[in-house]
Design a protein that fits this description.
single chain; about 400 residues; mainly alpha; Glycosyltransferase; 2 domains; 3-stranded antiparallel beta sheet; 13 helices
Length: about 400
């Protein structure tokens, strides 16, 4: 049995979100001069670099729009989202909705639009904000960008792909995984048939192509174009956190489509990937692994990252709510204890992002090029909502 009741846990996650994490971003990240957000923030919230990363801008617009839509109609949340969206609308793309990777603080492009996630998070941002405001221009930007994402599925980097074509073509898990979530995020804006087709394709890719029964039910990160396993470093590359995050997206789709068997498969896979990725010696989930146990090419393979553990919390508490599988609750408790002991900063708001294998803080920053106003607040919100429903049961 849990040390805390579901009601106590629900309050813990809610309070952390509302009283610590959201004020941190509202107070420290907004660029009052140029618009948009600073994401490179020290432990206590000081800006240490003013470059603006487009996918991080989109994530913060989405986060505050989503909270406005789903939690409370707070004007400061909507104002925060709108000012970020207006900065993106003016400077984030090349005029054809090809979204740059990064910009100077006043909006000059720094890095070309090579990264598909600039597009996916722009879609999410303008989609949620369109729902919040009814603004038709935001809706148009979301839908046009979504079409661009779908058109890039087979070659996300386009002309910026540094891989020589044809020698060893691989497809990657990240895009079909994110599309599972993206379709639900902008569902109110999509035609029903188009929505159904989009969902079918991404469920198929995640659950029938990257999920491998012949490997014991683990999810691989790269496969050949025909779905075959490839024996090279990229082909053996594993990212347990990615797979676990995808499984709660699939659970949400299973609920939406009334497909309990899909929810069960996703829950079982989340457990399998947590078991696979857990560090028995020091606790926590490894960042990267090799599916045959060889050394990885990524030097940061054994780091413990904030998002991996937060996504695991979401997947496990959802899995428990939807299926009643006690293993999910055991995993939630285990990861909850790790997260609140290691990632939560006892002295300043927001959470650390990067720990070494032993669980010690590696970088004290609260935001950077890859960490922004997204995984921590989204995870706190998701866990709070599920725990609240469990408490009411």
């Amino acid at each position: 049995m849990m040390n805390k009741t579901f009601q106590q846990l629900s309050s813990q996650y809610r309070d952390e979100l509302m009283n610590s994490v959201l004020p941190f971003w509202l107070n420290n990240s907004q660029d009052k001069e140029n618009g948009g957000y600073f994401t490179c923030l020290t432990r206590d919230g000081k800006v240490f670099d003013t470059d603006k990363f487009v996918w991080m801008q989109g994530r913060e617009v989405w986060l505050f729009s989503m909270l406005y839509n789903k939690v409370e109609k707070r004007q400061e949340w909507l104002d925060c989202a709108i000012q970020g969206a207006e900065f993106l609308r003016k400077y984030g793309h090349d005029g054809e909705l090809n979204w740059y990777f990064s910009l100077t603080s006043d909006g000059k492009p720094l890095v070309e639009p090579y990264n598909i996630f600039s597009y996916t998070f722009a879609t999410m941002a303008f989609g949620q904000l369109a729902i919040a405001t009814g603004n038709k221009e935001y809706e148009r930007i979301a839908l046009e960008t979504y079409k661009k994402v779908l058109s890039k599925q087979d070659n996300p980097k386009g002309k910026w792909n540094k891989v020589v074509g044809g020698t060893r073509p691989l497809k990657n898990f990240a895009l079909p995984m994110i599309l599972c979530n993206l379709a639900l995020e902008i569902e109110p804006l999509l035609d029903a048939d188009f929505m159904a087709q989009s969902i079918d394709r991404c469920i198929h890719e995640v659950m029938d192509v990257f999920l491998r029964p012949e490997l014991g039910g683990i999810v691989v990160e790269n496969v050949g174009l025909d779905g075959e396993l490839v024996d090279c470093m990229d082909g053996r590359h594993m990212n347990p956190g990615h797979a676990i995050e995808a499984m709660w997206f699939i659970m949400d789709l299973g609920v939406r489509l009334n497909r309990p068997e899909l929810v069960q498969r996703a829950k079982d896979t989340a457990i399998k990937m947590a078991e696979y990725g857990w560090d028995e010696k020091y606790g926590g989930i490894f960042y990267f692994m090799d599916r045959l146990g060889y050394p990885t090419q990524e030097l940061e393979w054994d780091q413990k990252l904030w998002w991996v553990h937060i996504e695991t919390l979401i997947a496990m508490i959802k899995g428990y709510e939807l299926t009643g599988d006690e293993r999910c609750l055991e995993w939630f408790n285990r990861v909850h204890d790790y997260v609140w002991t290691h990632f939560k900063d006892a002295e300043h708001p927001e959470w650390f992002g990067y720990l070494n294998r032993q669980g010690e803080v590696l970088l004290s920053l609260k935001g950077g090029k890859w960490k922004g106003c997204f995984h921590v607040p989204r995870g706190l919100y998701q866990c709070w909502q599920v725990l609240d429903r469990l408490a009411k049961k």
